[in-house]
Specification:
6-stranded mixed beta sheet; alpha+beta; about 25% helix; about 220 residues; 5-stranded mixed beta sheet
């Protein structure tokens, strides 16, 4: 039994949409279906996977813009983010207009997620960690068994999420990374919202925004 993953960059922002699946049941979840949903569906179909839910880390248009349409097409529900993210999900139409994305209607997930919740994918289980700062209701998904963290726009290779948007909070973001993510094993693979994959250990040592000299 193992959790597998595949990253599909979508939208003009090259946002890392992630397909996670249980290798035993072949059931899958799609995280942050921001757009290009035909391409996402084509890849999932090519692998013979059955999508059972969509997950959202937060409500920015490049992460959430295609989720409602894809969920409707697949007949599945959307889970996440944390309920404070209604601030951004309610503004999806305005965000789309601002950045030239196809229109997205305001979105309310079927299940809001809170710190300590779990999400099932076939026989696999993800832990939900609330990491505000980039946005107020941002969550990340962690699999201890797979050593995998889907981090959204919290933590990147050598960088962290922006906090200059409405309801952003720089100190909250730093605290979430250092107190919640940096306690994970160093070899945890991190799928960020944009850019290349990294590990928790690499960011603890070398990330100029949050690294700590004692980890060097």
């Amino acid at each position: 039994m193992a959790l597998k993953y595949h990253v599909i960059p979508v939208t003009p922002f090259a946002q890392n949409c992630s397909v996670l699946w249980c290798s035993v049941s072949r059931q899958a979840a799609i995280v942050d279906a921001g757009g290009d949903i035909e391409r996402i569906r084509a890849w999932v179909d090519s692998q013979g996977l059955t999508v059972e839910k969509l997950l959202l880390t937060h409500g920015h248009i490049d992460h959430a813009g295609g989720a409602a349409k894809l969920a409707e097409e697949l007949g599945v529900q959307i889970e996440g983010p944390q309920r404070a993210e209604s601030f951004w999900l309610d503004q999806l139409p305005t965000q789309g207009q601002m950045f030239g994305f196809p229109r997205s209607e305001p979105l309310t997930p079927q299940r809001w997620l809170e710190e300590g919740d779990t999400v099932a994918i076939g026989q696999e289980t993800l832990q939900v960690i609330h990491c505000p700062g980039h946005t107020p209701g941002h969550v990340v998904f962690y699999s201890p068994t797979a050593g995998l963290l889907v981090a959204g726009d919290v933590l990147f290779q050598g960088s962290i999420g922006r906090t200059d948007f409405p309801m952003g909070n720089h100190q909250q973001l730093i605290d979430a990374i250092q107190q919640k993510l940096f306690i994970l094993p160093d070899d945890t693979v991190v799928i960020p919202g944009h850019g290349p994959l990294t590990t928790i250990g690499a960011e603890k040592r070398d990330n100029p925004y949050v690294a700590n000299p004692r980890y060097r």
